[in-house]
TrEMBL record:
Keywords on record: ATP-binding, Cell inner membrane, Cell membrane, Membrane, Nucleotide-binding, Transmembrane, Transmembrane helix
PANTHER family: ATP-BINDING CASSETTE SUB-FAMILY B, ATP-BINDING_PERMEASE FUSION ABC TRANSPORTER-RELATED
GO molecular function, one term: ATP binding
PROSITE patterns to which the protein is assigned, alphabetical: ABC_TM1F (PS50929), ABC_TRANSPORTER_1 (PS00211), ABC_TRANSPORTER_2 (PS50893)
Protein name: ATP-binding cassette transporter
Domain ABC transporter span(s) in chain numbering: 323-552
C-alpha cells in the first residue's frame, strides 16, 4: 500500500529502532526462561553467576520494552496526524463536484475511526514484534535442547498458520463489509440532527426512521462485526489448540520415541507453559493488523476517489474587463424527478461594473449556473473566457479568486480566515454597526464572538465577510429571502448600488420582483435554458403589463 510505504519512509529509522528494541526485549524474555531452566539444576556457586546474568538480561528486557512501546506510541500519533493532514489537504484540493458527490460521511469516518485504527496498529506492533521474538527465542531454545523435536514443531506451526490464515481472511471480509455499512450509518446519524424538526413533527416518520431504517442498519453492522470477531476468536482458538497438540505429542509420543533426560523434559514443560501467553497475545494482536489493513485500504480508496485539481501558481487577477460563458453545459441527475437535468448550452457575457439579476422558477437551474459562473462546476462542453483568454484547468483556482459569493446554503467560519488587512477589526466593526449586528456580535483579532444567530442575521454576517474580501465579482444567491422588509430595501437600494459604484460586477439570484427595475439587465432561466433577457426597466414594464392584465381578468370574473 502506497500510503503505508509513505508512512514507513517518513519514520524509517525510528521504526527500525522500535522494531529492533521490541525484538531484543522478546529475545531477552526467552533468555530469562532459559536461565531459569538452567538455574533449576545448577550448583550453589554457579547460581551467583546465573543470578547476575538474570539481572542484566531482565534489566535489558525491561529497558528495551519501555523504549519500544514509547517509540511506537510516538509513531502511532505521528502517523495519525500525518494521515489526517494528508486527507484534509486532499479534501481541500479536490474538485467541488467530487466533494458534493462523495458527501461528508465517508470523509468523517476516515478522519476519525479509520485513523484511530491506524494508531491501534502502532500500539499493537510492539506486542507483535516482542511476542514473535519470544516465540522464536523459545523455539530456538527448544531446538538447542532437542533438534528432533524442533523438526516436528515446524510442520505443526505450518498447519496452525494455514488454519489461522483461513479464519482470519474470512474475518477481514466481514470487517471490511461492516465498515462500508458504517458509512451509511454515519449519514443516518447526521440525519437525526439535520432532520430533527421533521422527525419531531411526524411521529410515524420518526418511528419508521429510528425503528426500521436506523435499527436495521445498526443490526446489520452488529451481525457482520460479530461474525468477524467470532472468526478471529476461532482463529485464536485454533492456534492455541495446535500449541497444546504440539505439547501433547512431544510429551507423550515423541518422548517415547526419542527419550530425553528429566532436566531436558522439565525445560520443555517450562518453555511450553511460558509460550502459551505470548502466543495468545500474538493472536489477539493480529485482528488489529487486519483492522488497520482495512482502514488503510479505505484511506487509499478515499484518496483515489478525490482527484486533486491541477493548479499552477500565477499572479491572481484583481480585475477583469469581461467574463464570457461560451456554449457551456452541465448535467446532473435529479433523484426526485428521476431524470438527468441539463443546464445550457449557455452563452453569457458579464462586464465590469454591471448589476445583473438572475431570475426564474425553483429548479430552473439558477444556482447551478451560479456555480458554473464562479468556477465550482467545470463545463462539460463549451468554455469560460476572462478578457478573451480561456480558463483552463491550471488557471481554475486563480479564476475562482475573482469571486465573493453568498450562496443560499452558505457556511460561516468563526473567524475572518485568510484576510490580512490593516485595521481589519475596525472595518468589520463598522460593518457590524451598519448591518445592525453590533449588539449581537463582537470581533477581536479577526474572530467573531458568536455565530448563534438567526438565519437572517447569519446572512448579514456572511455579507460582511464577502464585503471585506473586496473581490471584483459578487454573487448573491437569494440573500434577501430571510431578511425583513427594512433590510431587503437596504440591500437592493443601497448595498448593491454601492458595490456597483465601486466598479464591482454583481449578480443577484432573486424572486423579489418589486426590485427588478433596479438591475442593469436581467437573465431568466427556465428548465436550464435562457428564455429571456433584457434591461431591468423592460422587465418592470412586462411585470406591470402582466399585473394589469391579471387585474382585468379578475374584474371580469367578478362582474360575471
Amino acid at each position: 500500500m502506497s500510503i503505508f510505504l509513505y508512512l514507513v519512509r517518513q519514520s524509517r529509522w525510528m521504526l527500525i529502532t522500535a522494531l529492533a528494541t521490541s525484538i531484543v526485549s522478546g529475545l531477552g524474555n526467552a533468555a530469562l526462561i532459559a536461565l531459569i531452566n538452567e538455574a533449576l539444576g545448577a550448583s550453589s556457586d554457579r547460581l551467583i553467576e546465573l543470578g547476575w546474568r538474570f539481572l542484566l538480561v531482565g534489566a535489558l528486557a525491561l529497558v528495551t520494552r519501555t523504549l519500544s512501546q514509547t517509540q511506537f506510541m510516538y509513531l502511532g500519533q505521528r502517523a495519525k496526524a500525518t494521515l489526517r493532514m494528508y486527507a484534509v489537504r486532499r479534501i481541500g484540493e479536490a474538485s467541488f463536484r467530487e466533494l458534493e458527490r462523495q458527501g461528508g460521511a465517508k470523509a468523517l469516518a476516515v478522519l476519525t475511526q479509520d485513523l484511530d485504527t491506524i494508531v491501534v496498529l502502532f500500539i499493537s506492533l510492539p506486542t507483535l514484534a516482542m511476542q514473535g521474538a519470544v516465540i522464536a527465542g523459545c523455539l530456538g531454545y527448544l531446538g538447542f535442547l532437542s533438534w528432533r523435536i524442533l523438526m516436528f514443531a515446524i510442520p505443526m506451526i505450518g498447519v496452525g498458520a494455514a488454519g489461522f490464515w483461513f479464519a482470519n481472511s474470512r474475518a477481514v471480509f466481514h470487517l471490511r463489509a461492516s465498515r462500508r455499512r458504517e458509512d451509511d450509518l454515519i449519514k443516518q446519524f447526521r440525519a437525526l440532527f439535520d432532520g430533527a424538526k421533521e422527525l419531531k413533527l411526524h411521529r410515524l416518520r420518526r418511528a419508521a426512521f429510528v425503528e426500521e431504517t436506523l435499527a436495521g442498519n445498526v443490526e446489520a453492522v452488529r451481525v457482520q462485526r460479530t461474525r468477524g470477531y467470532v472468526l478471529y476468536a476461532a482463529a485464536a482458538s485454533w492456534g492455541s489448540f495446535m500449541l497444546f497438540a504440539f505439547i501433547g505429542c512431544t510429551l507423550f509420543v515423541l518422548n517415547r520415541l526419542y527419550p530425553v533426560g528429566p532436566h531436558v523434559m522439565a525445560g520443555y514443560a517450562m518453555v511450553f507453559l511460558y509460550m502459551i501467553m505470548p502466543i495468545e497475545a500474538l493472536l489477539a494482536a493480529i485482528p488489529n493488523v487486519s483492522s488497520a489493513r482495512v482502514a488503510l485500504e479505505r484511506i487509499q480508496q478515499f484518496s483515489l476517489d478525490l482527484p486533486v485539481e491541477m493548479a499552477r501558481a500565477t499572479t491572481p487577477l484583481h480585475a477583469f474587463d469581461s467574463i464570457v460563458l461560451d456554449g457551456v453545459t452541465h448535467q446532473y441527475f435529479r433523484e426526485k424527478e428521476n431524470e438527468v437535468f441539463t443546464l445550457g448550452p449557455v452563452d453569457l457575457t458579464f462586464k465590469s461594473g454591471e448589476l445583473v439579476y438572475l431570475i426564474g422558477g425553483n429548479g430552473s437551474g439558477k444556482t447551478t449556473l451560479a456555480k458554473m459562473i464562479v468556477g465550482l462546476y467545470l463545463p462539460e462542453q463549451g468554455r469560460v473566457l476572462v478578457n478573451g483568454e480561456p480558463v483552463g484547468e491550471a488557471q481554475r483556482d486563480d479564476y475562482r479568486q475573482l469571486f465573493s459569493v453568498v450562496f443560499s446554503d452558505f457556511f460561516l467560519f468563526d473567524s475572518l480566515l485568510g484576510m490580512r488587512l490593516d485595521g481589519l477589526d475596525q472595518s468589520a466593526q463598522r460593518l457590524l454597526e451598519l448591518l445592525h449586528l453590533d449588539h449581537k456580535v463582537r470581533i477581536a483579532d479577526g474572530a467573531f464572538s458568536t455565530l448563534e444567530l438567526s438565519q437572517g442575521q447569519r446572512k448579514r454576517l456572511a455579507l460582511l465577510v464577502a464585503y471585506l474580501e473586496d473581490r471584483p465579482f459578487y454573487l448573491f444567491d437569494e440573500w434577501a429571502a430571510d431578511q425583513d422588509p427594512l433590510f431587503k430595501d437596504v440591500f437592493y437600494r443601497e448595498l448593491l448600488p454601492a458595490l456597483k459604484a465601486k466598479g464591482k460586477t454583481v449578480v443577484v439570484i432573486t424572486h423579489d420582483d418589486r426590485y427588478f427595475h433596479l438591475a442593469d439587465r436581467y437573465i431568466k432561466l427556465d428548465y436550464g435554458q435562457i428564455v429571456e433577457a433584457g434591461t431591468g426597466e423592460e422587465l418592470l414594464a412586462k411585470d406591470s403589463a402582466a399585473t394589469r392584465a391579471s387585474s382585468v381578468v379578475k374584474m371580469f370574473r367578478t362582474s360575471q
